[in-house]
Amino acid sequence: MNRFASLLMSLPLAACAAGADPAADLAPAPSSGPAPAAREASFTWHVLGGQADGRRYRLFVPASYDGARPAPLLVMLHGCTQDPDDFARGTRMNEVAGEHGFLVAYPEQTAAGNPQKCWSWYDPAHQARGAGEPDEIARAAREVMASHGVDPARVYVAGVSAGGAMALNVAAAYPELFAAAGSHSGIAYRAAAGVQQALGAMQRGAADTAALGAAVAAAMGGRARPVPVVVFHGG
User: Fold this and answer.
1) What is the pLDDT of residue 21?
2) How far apart are CA 103 and CA 174, in angstroms?
3) Which of these, 193, 216, 191, lies nearest to 205 by C-alpha position?
4) 50-64, 171-185, 187-201, 203-217: which range is least confident on average?
5) Of 62, 70, 24, 71, nearest to 44 (Cα)?
6) What is the spatial distance between Cα 151 and Cα 77, in angstroms, rounded to a whole number?
7) Beta strand pairing status for 150-160 and 71-77?
8) Catalytically annotated residues
9) Are 71 and 17 in contact (CB under 8 A)?
10) Crossing angle for the helix pair 162-173 and 132-147, to the nearest 10 degrees
């Protein structure tokens, strides 16, 4: 997982996020006045919709962000037994975001949603647009877009394990929102429709990949388009 941050830069994010230094054309501060305070990065908790029972997410905003230039946004989905803080530490994605100037949102799955804090990628209630966890993740992305200067053409979703599977669920359900997706040790979209099928898919893979491809197209409906996906997986 330590290399997840560098691996995910295979997404178009890396080339798009880097830009000219916003301070390059600024004149030196007058010697008679105080030097401008350096902006600091922030990593703060937010609650979806501002509701007491809303899903929480962590948002990293790099020091280089000033709101004047729309920045890319990456939504990161943690694996089972993890939380946003653990995932940020393990992937070091905030360090990469600080270097390249993009925002990172980390939605949280709690033990109340799943005893192991897994995203429910295998549950039909969380595999479609407008409902369940994909809806909340998409709403969190849109909430960040509404409160910050985000380039709507450079919004991405990625995850590891159960988070990698859910990233594909989200990308299939909201192809107009997410420009690309990344899945590390994940599972194909709709490879399971229950816990027992999920265990089988994780052990043996999917039996009918053509059917899964058709399921993606059906989920996208009239919004269907080729969504770039980067996949990392082992034997």
Assistant:
1) 46
2) 19
3) 191
4) 203-217
5) 62
6) 20
7) parallel
8) 161
9) yes
10) 70
DSSP 39: P
- Decide which of 187 and 3 is more confident: 187
**pLDDT, tens only, 173-192:** 999 999 999 999 999 999 99
The residues that bridge with 57 in the sheet, in sequence order, are 46, 107
Cβ-contact 63, 41 below 8 angstroms: yes
- Give the torsion sign (CA, 4, 9, 11, 16): positive
In degrees to the nearest 10, what's the CA dihedral of 118, 1, 54, 176?
A: -100
Neighbouring C-beta atoms of residue 225, cutoff 10 Å:
7
State the virtual CA torsion across 135, 202, 186, 80 in degrees, nearest 10: 70
Contacts of 100 (CB under 8 A, 6+ apart): 9, 13, 14, 17, 18
Structure tokens at 26: 């600024």
Chain length of the chain: 235
Measured CA angle at 180 (ends 16, 234), to 5 deg: 110
Rounded to whole angstroms, the Cα distance separating 34 from 38 reads 12
Which residues have a Cβ under 8 Å from the Cβ of 63 and sit 6 or more positions away? 38, 39, 40, 41, 98
Measured in degrees and rounded to the nearest 5, phi and psi for residue 160 equal -125, 140
| Cβ neighbour number for residue 19 with a 10 Å cutoff | 11
Q: Which two tokens stand for residue 106?
A: 């980390």
3-state secondary structure of 109: coil
